[in-house]
Structures are given as C-alpha cells and as structure tokens.
From TrEMBL:
Residues 1-18 form the signal peptide. Its main location: other. GO terms for cellular component: cell envelope. Keywords: Cytochrome c-type biogenesis, Disulfide bond, Redox-active center, Signal. One of its GO terms (molecular function) is antioxidant activity. This is Thioredoxin domain-containing protein.
C-alpha cells in the first residue's frame, strides 16, 4: 500500500514538473526569437514621462508584461522583486509593461501594494483590442518576459520567470557593476547621439566604394565633468557589403578588403567617441561620479544626412 502511495506521489510530481516545463511550448511559441532586434517603443509612466527602449542601450533589459488583474502575474511579483534586488547593482534594467486600463488600480498594485520599484509603463488601453505593444512583441499570454541584450537583441522570450532567473544567473559573469544611481547620458538623448555619430563618421574611399557597413561596440568612461576617457572597441559585428564590385573580387582580395574595413571602423569608432560633445555624468547620491558605459555605432554607407 505504501509503495502504491509513493508511486502515485512520484507520478503526480512528475506530471506537475512536466506541466511547468511545458508552459513555454503552450504559451510562448509566437514570441520573438533570440537574436531578433527588439522593436523600439515609447510608453508613458503614471506621471506622464516618456520611456524609450532605445535609451536603455548598453544594459540588459527585462521587459515584464503583466496586469494588476492577472493572478499569475501577481504570483510572480515576489520572484521578480527578488531578481530586481539581486541585480540592482548590475547593468540590468527592468521595465514593467502593464495591460491595465484603470490607472488607479495599476498604480495601487505596483506602488502601494507590492512596491515594484523598477520602471513601470502602460498604454492604459484594452489588451489585444487597443494596445500596440502586445502586437510588437507578440504577447498572447501574461505574464510574459523578454530579456534583451546591451545591443538591443532578444536573448530570451518566456512565460516562466524561473527561466528568466536562470538565464540572468548564467550571464552574471558578463554583467557590469553599476555604481551610479543615475547613469550617464548624451546631452540631448540617444537620438541626438545617433545623429552625431551618423553625421560625423568618415569612410575611406574603398569602404565607401564597396558599400561596407558594420556595427562597432565601444566601451568608455564618462568622467565627472562629462568628458570621455578610455574608449576601446569591444567588437566589430555584422560586417557586410552590398556591392557588385566586391562580388567580382577574388577570395583573397575580399579578405583583404574586409580586414582593411574592420581596421578602419575600429579606429573611426574611437575617433568618434573621443570627439563627442560633453555628456551628462552619472550621479551617486546626487553627486557626479565616473561611470563606464557602452554604445554601438552603426556605420552605414548609404546615410546621406538628416531628412529635411
């Protein structure tokens, strides 16, 4: 009899585990795949501040889709709070995206009841009927969570917070300590920085002729006075060309052209960063502090200046 009971308990536990492991296969099949560029968005906080995803570049970003009326979402809140507490000193940012329509219920839940102290935004519109963010991110179920890397690409899409936790734990050796309360920002914001980078980047005759593009990741420090120091290239990625002239070259010549382009982009990225206008420095306890940050410079041979 005892053996039968134990066997039954074991089977029930197995089924429960399998069911838990199967949640993504049931509810996350339509989510954006790893490697996909995370769609940019602008959403508002309860106090009417615009939050733009692109402003978080250089950090890992967790998008937590939820609603105050969702029991499963509320059940995950303690685990999300623990994640936030464990990672608050690293370059990990959490953005809660609510599908609430009632502003008072939304604010009372995330602020008064649960003290969810990370960024909270909402369209305050009916999910799947009037909202847009769910269509951008294929959110068919809540809670849904995405992890986005510092370059703005999807690392993980899941409905299981334990998978999110495990993924972040696996990334911990790559995370950077954040000593600042407020991170440094380019004066004018990310859009102004991207405009500066595009308008001031230089090409060699060959890289322009061969229409070579690339994304260069650069790390640097923003000093207390807003000046830039210690710029270094971390990676040159997505090096590619779209030129018939390149296609006609021999394989050896192609390799030489790409190697020369890589070297040029590395040097040009450093030059662009070192000649940037002043940044607004990071703050710790209200005082300026030195802080490291990372940006990705997109070299585009087709860029012809801002639209007029």
């Amino acid at each position: 009899m005892r053996r039968t009971i134990l066997s039954t308990m074991f089977l029930l536990a197995t089924f429960a585990t399998a069911a838990a492991q199967d949640l993504d296969s049931k509810y996350a099949t339509n989510l954006l795949k790893p490697g996909t560029v995370a769609p940019d968005f602008t959403l508002r906080t309860a106090d009417e501040k615009d939050i733009k995803l692109r402003e978080f570049r250089g950090n890992y970003v967790v998008l937590d889709f939820w609603a105050s009326w969702c029991p499963d979402c509320r059940k995950d809140i303690p685990a999300m709070k623990q994640l936030w507490s464990n990672l608050m000193d690293y370059n990990v940012r959490i953005i809660g995206i609510s599908f609430d329509t009632n502003k008072e219920a939304w604010v009372n839940t995330y602020w008064d009841k649960y003290q969810m102290n990370w960024t909270q935004v909402s369209e305050l519109k009916k999910w799947k009927k009037d909202t847009k963010i769910d269509r951008l991110y294929h959110v068919d179920w809540i809670p849904t969570m995405y992890l986005i890397d510092p370059n703005g690409r999807i690392v993980l899409g899941t409905v299981e917070i334990e998978k999110l936790r495990a993924t972040l734990e696996g990334l911990r050796p790559q995370l950077k300590m954040s000593t600042a309360d407020v991170m440094p920002v380019y004066v004018g914001g990310n859009e102004a920085m991207q405009q500066y980078l595009k308008e001031h980047q230089l090409y060699t005759l060959q890289t322009r002729k061969m229409r070579i593009s690339a994304n260069v990741k650069v790390s640097f420090s923003v000093e207390m006075d807003g000046t830039i120091t210690g710029a270094r290239v971390l990676d040159v990625a997505e090096l590619k060309t779209n030129s018939p002239k390149y296609d006609k070259l021999s394989e050896d010549r192609k390799a030489e052209v790409l190697a020369a382009a890589t070297e040029h982009f590395r040097k040009e990225a450093i030059r662009l960063v070192e000649h940037m206008p002043l940044w607004t420095p990071a703050l710790k306890n209200g005082r300026p502090v030195k802080e490291k940050t990372t940006i990705v410079i997109e070299f585009d041979p087709y860029y012809k200046g801002p639209k007029k």
